[in-house]
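re: that chain from earlier
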Amino acid sequence: MAVNPLIRHAVERACHACGRDPTRMLDIVRGVQQRLGHVPDEAVDLIARETGAPRPDVAGVVGFYAFFSNRPQGRIVIRLCGDVVDRMHGVERVAEALVEELGVPFGETTPDGLFTLLWTPCIGMSDQAPAALVNDVVVTRLSRDVARQMVGELREHEDPHRFVRTYGDGNNAHPAVRAMVENNVRRAGPVVLADLERGAALARALRMTPAEVIREIKTARLRGRGGAGFPTGMKWEFTRAAAGDRKVLICNADEGEPGTFKDRVILTEHPDLVLEGMTIGAWAIGAQEGILYLRGEYAYLEAFLEQVLEARRRDGLLGRSILGREGFDFDVRIQLGAGAYVCGEETALIASCEGKRGDAKARPPFPAQHGYLGRPTSVNNVETFCCAARIIERGAAWFAGFGTPESAGTKLFSVSGDCHVPGVYELPFGTTLGELLDLAGADEAAAVQVGGPSGRLVAAEGARERRLGYEDLATGGSVMVFGPQRDPLWIVERFLEFFVDESCGVCTPCRVGNVLMHDAVRRVRAGLAGESDLEQLRALATTVGMASRCGLGQSSPNPVLSAMDAFPDHWRRHLHARSEPGLLPTFDVQAALRPAEMLTGRRSEVFPPREEERR
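^ sequence. v structure.
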């Protein structure tokens, strides 16, 4: 069968641009989709042939990532953010306006092939919601009128960039960015959001041995800023000591946790600090290869970051013989993600960097021994690398002077929701939740989700004196505020929807358990549950957390369990189910009997219709 020349040309160009390297599969598939609007089966065949990758692996990548499609899409894809904060700020009204204006429901393409309308999870804009991605262009603070205006203009010129006429602050106005995104830095601290003398920390690191660098990081008591809090110095030490000459360093810039947007600000305003920390880490572990894994929602920053990388190469801060140090060769490439929350987990992220589905792997072996392409690999997040650079620049004692004995340094908090001053706050660890809420203008906070959906929901009134840190309220950065008008069970249901959608589906406890938890919470909210259902839900949540293979499933029950502990009265308030004697409240006997009643043409005499049904 003859191959469609357009498809062949698109595949050949995309594969050639990536050296036909199967580990660059995400970039190849993205290149094909950009040229064709989707990745048809014929393209999958050709990609497999060009790269030597098994066809099922190529098809798996196309089917796994939300930003890829094997169905034709419009020339303009509108991805409206549907996370809990956007819903609180009226995104449903925006959605109604888009459906009315485009004449198609979500998940469909207009007959003229111009628009595709989709829901998407958090895009890192919770401080300026409602927001959407229009192709790779971010549009913030949407309303019904703005949505209608946007569609009208795009029908005329089909260029989402032209809709952005006012740029945000700082580097959002940079010629390589030109985004309407606002940084919303509300409190800049001395560690991450302070000014940097470019190259100073790296020069000091190169006057130290790798072992001395690691010792300094350990003395500073730096723990990973992604949420788990594993000691960074130990991770670097394990990787350096692992067998194998080719070590790899990866920066996890895939902050997909709803309500988190601190890395967006760091990458926009302090990319040199991140890369300085990466280069110091490479010196410490003996790596020559670095990867910055940038979430697909931040594609608008890619060109800017490439410019920063090139400037560092030009100035001897990256590449061969860095700062004149013979034998120290290290460079960084950007790997753009494609819409998969699970890739925030380090083994799933490594698989994605290798050009595969983002499936998490069972451990051991740990990435420090067997990571990217089987090489010893250290994965650290954006904020962690910033802290590492500051420690080498200013010293371990200076860094450890902030925070608490268990949680040294400062932390960036992304605050959003029902507050007057959403944004990014850099504060010392040990700051109380109440102090942060006061800074953010959360005057009427009733509940606070600390650590994103995978964290915990606490009652604001009883948690104001609790301290933000690993020994009390641990968080990767997300702090979502909910006023008294928000139902905690509604919040939990929204979070479980997110986990159901984002589960990779490999392990049964996560794939099935999240669906069961979501259905159970929905039944409780509908008044169809009894006390025994709550007991079963708690047992189910505990099992899912214990039996799941990666962090997603292990933490997805947290909203359920923490909300049960913090808001027991809200759960019991819904337990007013109408039930027949001897039947569970979740069982609707009338609904079960209805098909038989229709067939026989008469009503049940044992379970007659309720009064409201007769009316």
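The two ends are 64 Å apart (CA to CA).
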